[in-house]
Write a structure and sequence with these properties.
Blueprint (H helix, E strand, L loop, with lengths): L3 H34 L3 H29 L1 H21 L3 H14 L3 H12 L5 H18 L2 H6 L5 H22 L12 H12 L2 H31 L5 H31 L4 H20 L6 H12 L5 H8 L2 H30 L11 H23 L9 H4 L7
Helix pairs in contact: 1-2, 1-5, 1-6, 1-8, 1-10, 2-3, 2-4, 2-15, 3-4, 3-5, 3-8, 5-6, 6-11, 9-15, 10-11, 10-12, 10-14, 10-15, 10-16, 11-13, 12-13, 12-16, 15-16
Length: 415
């Protein structure tokens, strides 16, 4: 019924959509589980962030599994761990068991995006991959929309535990569809060992060019995804004074805007390069606009809330262009590990930022479940300061990007 490339796109996009829903589902669950279990903001931040710790920790082993067994089998198999994780989370009555569930979810979905990119690369021409990859990111971004108004509406007549059971079913269905209908890998590569992956990561971490490219993007991406998947809802309720349904609607606006940004900035970057604007500079301007948007929100600029939060979503995902910048500065045999290393750092920062914001908020006493605006402004102020510091490093003139990293890493063996 569908051509093989289209089938690959639809099935692996569904896997990434599930991954994204799990990323942000605690945004809707937060008021309910906080009330039911008596969690502090620090507890909630740690609980939610364990998804990102599990995701980051599984990146390198997952890459090896993808190389050895192919995207179809690995993605379908790992999603079963995610299904078990949300089942554990939904049946738990203590925060410790819930943490185990979130960690399992993060491990289970850790291959969804990497598996999709690998499968697409085998079934689409290289020239079409930037657009196709962007479309997969956009489909995944629908998960960010779903955890807004749709989830809030669902929770008006279903318990959060019932929603968890529904997610178990959805995850298993997607896993079964991938196993049954995704085409088998046409070329299996057995060359990348786990030791080689870690060795390559060490070489990347020692590269000045890598840190120059990554400096601003890892911080902005860490902030964006940490806030989008948990703390944006609390800001909208506690600081902006929106009711739960209004806050959820703005979360969905943010999600749609991020989808548009993923596709739009990818297309705009090519156009700007033809006009002489480097991808590095274009990415930097977009990330700077994300910081400006945060400042406007903090200062309560007299602009429509929908416009501000749409801008937050559009500019929040710009840092993803750094993956394309890395591809310009690292040789082919290192680029995969450069991407993996960038992903690792971003997800570790998301983990740290979610915990950090929760720890800052917990220094204030909540009233009827709401933290005072000063608590949120303090947390956001710290995050903006970190982004400004990384922006300075990113913008400072440097010679490292003019050098070919392949020469400095000549000793690295091609896997």
């Amino acid at each position: 019924m569908f051509s093989t490339p289209l089938r690959v796109f639809l099935l692996f996009s569904a896997g990434y959509f599930v991954s994204y829903v799990f990323r942000g589902v605690n945004l809707g669950f937060a008021p309910l589980i906080t009330h039911e279990l008596g969690l502090t903001a620090a507890d909630l931040g740690l609980l939610t962030s364990l998804y990102f710790l599990g995701f980051a920790g599984a990146q390198l082993p997952a890459g090896v599994l993808l190389d050895h067994f192919g995207a179809r089998r690995v993605t379908a198999g790992m999603l079963i761990f995610a299904a078990i994780g949300i089942g554990v989370f939904g049946t738990a009555h203590g925060v410790g068991t819930m943490m185990v569930g979130r960690l399992l979810i993060g491990v289970g979905v850790s291959v969804c995006l990497g598996g999709a990119f690998k499968a697409l690369a085998q079934h689409f021409p290289a020239a079409r991959l930037p657009l196709i990859n962007g479309l997969v990111m956009a489909v995944g971004g629908l998960g960010g929309v779903v955890v807004g108004s749709p989830l809030t509406w669902l929770l008006t007549f279903a318990s959060w535990r019932a929603v968890c059971f529904g997610l178990v079913v959805l995850t298993l269905v997607v896993s079964a569809m991938l196993w049954a209908f995704a085409p088998e890998q046409t070329e299996t590569r057995h060359q990348a060992s786990l030791v080689s992956q870690f060795k390559g990561t060490w070489h990347i971490l020692r590269s000045a060019a890598f840190w120059k490219i990554a400096s601003f993007s890892v911080v902005t991406q860490g902030v964006f995804y940490a806030m989008q998947s948990l703390w944006v809802g609390a800001w909208l309720r506690d600081v902006s004074g929106f009711q739960s349904h209004e806050a959820a609607a703005l979360v969905s606006v943010l999600g749609f805007a991020m989808m548009a940004g993923c596709v739009g900035f990818g297309a705009a970057a090519r156009s700007m390069e033809r006009r002489g604007v480097s991808l590095y500079a274009f990415c930097g301007v977009g990330m700077a606009l994300f910081v400006v948007t945060q400042l406007l929100i903090m200062l309560r600029a007299p602009l429509p809330a929908g416009l501000l939060w749409a801008a937050y979503g559009i500019f929040g995902g710009v840092g993803i262009l750094s993956y394309a910048v890395l591809a310009r500065h690292f040789p082919p045999h290192l680029i995969g590990r450069a991407n993996t290393t960038l992903t690792l750092i971003i997800f570790l920062l998301i983990f740290g930022f979610q915990i950090g914001v929760g720890a800052v908020l917990s220094r204030w006493t909540p009233t009827d479940g709401h933290y005072p605006p000063a608590a949120h402004l303090t947390a956001w102020g710290i995050l903006v300061a970190l982004q400004l510091a990384s922006a300075v490093w990113y913008a400072l003139p440097s010679r490292v990007l003019a050098k070919s990293p392949s020469s400095s890493m000549h000793a690295e063996h091609q896997p």
